[in-house]
Amino acid sequence: WGMSIDLEQVSVEDHCGGQLFTLRWEGERMVRAWMPPGHDLSAGPLPCLWMQDGQNVFRDEVAFGGISWGAAGSVMHLIQAGCIPSMAVIAVDHAGVNRSFDYLPVPPGDWGGMRQDMAAARGGNIEVYCELLLRGLLPWAEKRFNLSPEPKKRALGGSSFGGIATLYMAMLHPEAFRCVMIESPSFWACDGRTMQDVRGHAGKPWPERVYLAMGGSEYTATRPTAGAAGAKCDTFLTQACEECAALLAAQGVGPERLDWHVEPGAAHNERDWRRRLPRALRWLFGAPSAAEKSAGGAFWSRPSPVRAGCAFELYADPSKLPQPRGGQPQVHLGFNGWSRDVQTLLLQPAGLPCQEAAGDKAWLVAMVVAPSGARDLQLAFTNGTDWDNNGGKNYELSIAQG
Description:
This protein has helices at residues 71-80, 99-103, 126-144, 161-172, 193-199, 227-250, 270-285, and strands at residues 8-15, 18-26, 29-35, 48-51, 88-92, 154-159, 179-183, 209-215, 258-263, 299-302, 306-307, 311-316, 330-335, 340-346, 348-353, 362-369, 376-382, 387-388, 395-400. By secondary structure, the chain is an alpha/beta fold. The model has no long low-confidence stretch (mean pLDDT 91). The chain is built from seven helices and 19 strands. The strands form three sheets. A nine-stranded mixed beta sheet has the order 1-2-3-5-4-6-7-8-9, with helices on both faces. Strands 11, 13, 14, 17, 18 and 19 form a six-stranded mixed beta sheet that branches. Strands 10-12-16-15 form a four-stranded antiparallel beta sheet, with helices on one face. The protein is globular.
């Protein structure tokens, strides 16, 4: 399977603080490579996240539906906050009308008439596609961009049919990537073949870490007139995600290796995958040390201390916040005595266990940037109705300069 390929560079542009290279692979099918700031070929080899459906990964104007994953922005913020190492992202375009052929083990079928648009779609090339990535694109890109060839510094991610392709790569070549991100996998496709193959993988290895997620309204959020039949589709997909997680756990991918969740109300689109991407990246590439946590406190920052002009993450203990009453936990914050950059941000699940909290709750997190010249941060927590402002004193963090 040794393959010799060479990609033609089409363009390079500044993007989210780094550089975005577009390279022609086959016809109009591109490979899009984002390199972080300061990286050059003389630097040490970088870890890399590889992504399926590359058209949708970086830029809204070329993404399906006009919304991309915004991957470079999320990666850049987490790098600046010290949450993940400096790393590259390489996104491989799908093959257009042959997308399902590359990504699926057999034709998808029409899901009992619920996906008639897929009735004539092809499938069956997934093994060849995985080999093409491993024997062709990976070694070429690792040489071209000075990426690490070590599997422990590689991750692979995808959504929808791309999530199925990522799942198959994890089964066919578990040694090739340390970790995989499987977003909204199309378990409806292939007439149950995918879950059958996961069951049949018992006794065989998996990558070291797996991130698996599904929206609670995958079908109806994009097809609001689907009615009761659409609601059954939503239930099928969430139950399939739960079954896949249970199978992984039974095959040795326990909670220290698997982060999985179903997000209530979330749809099958890049907007929701974009929102969940930071959680996936934290799980796959980084985790906080105990020293970073504010022992017994309601919140802590990463990095600590926060520095003016730099990105950071604000973590909150859900057991110490006002409990939601129909609303999502939020943080209201401002800098320099509330005189600068006052804003209210949703607190999202971080995917990191919160041992101090009751039960199995995880830390909540908001991604923030401290403006230049900031000296201090004031904040309060709310669920949209109730507030926790430290007994009227507000919570505060000092901000370091330089």
